[in-house]
From TrEMBL:
The lineage of its organism: Eukaryota, Metazoa, Chordata, Craniata, Vertebrata. One of its GO terms (cellular component) is plasma membrane. It is a multi-pass membrane protein. One of its GO terms (molecular function) is G protein-coupled receptor activity. The keyword Glycoprotein applies. This is AGRG3 protein. Residues 187-442 form the G-protein coupled receptors family 2 profile domain. Residues 30-177 form the GAIN-B domain. The keyword Transmembrane applies.
């Protein structure tokens, strides 16, 4: 439309058209900004504007005496353009700059085109400068740094490219080498410790179920906790295997380990959801909740549904070797997981699935907390219950319902190293937290047994029945 002479007005699009002669041996200087668009650069112009330098080589190689240069500045947030399904980075200021000279494609320049993107101080990210808008046959379009060299600075980044296309700065979350290695060391150590405490927790649950005469509700709760901790044990084991064998095992083995790790993660999420459903049945739908072979049916759902999801993802070829890269695009760690080409599978089956579970569990947690506080305020639940124990019960439920996993949403995009450390530590040490919580909550004591969660549930049932 621009080259045909028509004037178009779209929100978020600003364009400049100018004619340049072959006799111009100095090249062309153009300024651009997100708000004002492109314009011929005034040498006295100051401020936060980007700059484009088109070398004279471009114009000397053209056959015609005069060519038309079109520079377009796009606000992709308003236009909804250049959106990739698997894009994990963030476009700087949502701005893309397109450059065309004449009607032919220009590439392989000896003297590069220079684009200066003005910005403030950037967090620790990696910048990929160019977007390939016209890919070769058989290749998919997308962000690409081929043919470009990026030189970051404090107040701007200079991109030198040997071709003309659409350009931007894509900010990808990345880690420096020391932080990445430290996080991997913390995760590996934490997984080893969590495996040991998961075994202790499973042994404790089995001991309590077999040694003491407990109510059916408490036995069901312990069975749920046992399965959740078992899925955590398998997840930690699968993670250690996938990180230890990635890069050395055959591709088929890595695909199997990637599917196993994904399966264990989905099992953890599913059992977390079942914990929330159990609390809902106990506290919200108090009466008439007996289900024949209840725990067996939960096991079928908790271990069977993830297998179905992983089977479908495996049929799509989603598993393989995945690399964790640093800011300079160096692979610092390898693991068997969902490959980069199938990140949509990760977003749907992991992020989306857990997001729904977390919202439901937090709603259940709010109802449970409200009912417990109401019983406490009315004096219905009394005895030797201590405030620290009530706080521990609430914190344990919060962790049990997936609060630690929810911190993964804070690590997306541009996040600090402190958030990454906190997420890694909390999730790798879930086994320890659950072990302490279960011992304090469920170990029978003579006068403090009324302080358990089962007593609150039992009293709530009695109160509800008497009200009805």
């Amino acid at each position: 439309l621009l080259q045909s002479g028509r004037h178009i007005r779209l929100p978020g699009l600003k364009a400049l058209r100018l004619n340049v002669s072959r006799a111009d041996t100095r090249g062309v200087l153009i300024a651009f900004s997100r708000t004002e668009g492109p314009s011929r650069l005034n040498t006295t112009e100051k401020g936060k504007v980007g700059k484009i330098h088109l070398p004279r080589e471009i114009f000397r190689s053209l056959s015609s005496q005069t060519v038309r240069v079109v520079v377009t500045v796009l606000n992709i947030q308003q236009l909804g353009m250049f959106e990739e399904i698997n894009q994990t980075g963030q476009v700087l200021d949502n701005t893309v700059v397109g450059i065309t000279v004449g009607e032919s494609s220009i590439s392989g320049l000896q003297e590069p085109v220079q684009l200066t993107f003005r910005h403030g101080e950037l967090p620790q990210v990696s910048a990929v400068p160019a977007l390939t808008a016209a890919p070769l046959a058989g290749q998919a379009g997308g962000w690409c740094s081929s043919g470009c060299v990026t030189q970051p600075g404090d107040k701007g980044t200079v991109c030198s490219c040997d071709h003309l296309t659409f350009f931007t700065l894509l900010l990808n979350p990345a880690l420096d080498v020391s932080t990445a290695r430290a996080l991997m060391a913390v995760a590996t150590t934490g997984c080893g410790v969590a495996m040991a405490f998961s075994i202790f927790t499973m042994a404790f649950c089995i001991f309590v179920r077999c040694r003491f005469r407990l109510e059916e509700t408490v036995r069901t709760n312990l069975g749920l906790h046992l399965n959740l901790v078992g899925s955590l044990l398998l997840l930690n084991l699968a993670f250690l295997l996938s990180t230890g064998l990635a890069g050395r095992a055959p591709p088929s083995t890595c695909r199997v380990l990637g599917g196993l790790t994904h399966y264990c993660l989905l099992c953890c999420f599913t059992w977390t959801a079942l914990e929330g459903c159990q609390l809902y049945l106990l506290f919200v739908k108090v009466l008439g909740t007996y289900i024949h072979h209840y725990l067996a049916k939960l096991c079928l759902l908790g271990w069977g549904f993830p297998a179905l999801v992983v089977g479908v993802a495996g049929a799509l070829g989603s598993y393989g070797e995945y690399s964790i890269q640093t800011m300079d695009q160096q692979a610092i760690a390898h693991l068997c997981w969902i490959t980069s080409e199938h990140l949509l599978v990760h977003y749907i089956t992991n992020c989306g699935y857990f997001g729904l579970i977390f919202l439901f569990n937090m709603a259940v947690f709010g109802v449970v907390t409200h009912k417990s506080c109401s019983l406490q305020d009315t004096g219905a639940v009394q005895g030797h219950r201590k405030p620290w124990k009530l706080a521990l019960v609430a914190a344990g439920l919060f962790c049990l319902l997936g609060a630690a996993w929810a911190m993964a949403f804070l690590t997306y995009g541009i996040s600090s190293a402190a958030v990454l450390y906190l997420f890694t530590v909390l999730n790798s040490l879930q086994g320890i937290f659950i072990f302490i919580w279960l011992v304090v909550l469920y170990y029978p004591k003579t006068k403090e047994s009324t302080g358990s969660l089962s007593y609150i549930i039992r009293h709530d049932k009695t109160t509800t029945a008497s009200q009805d």
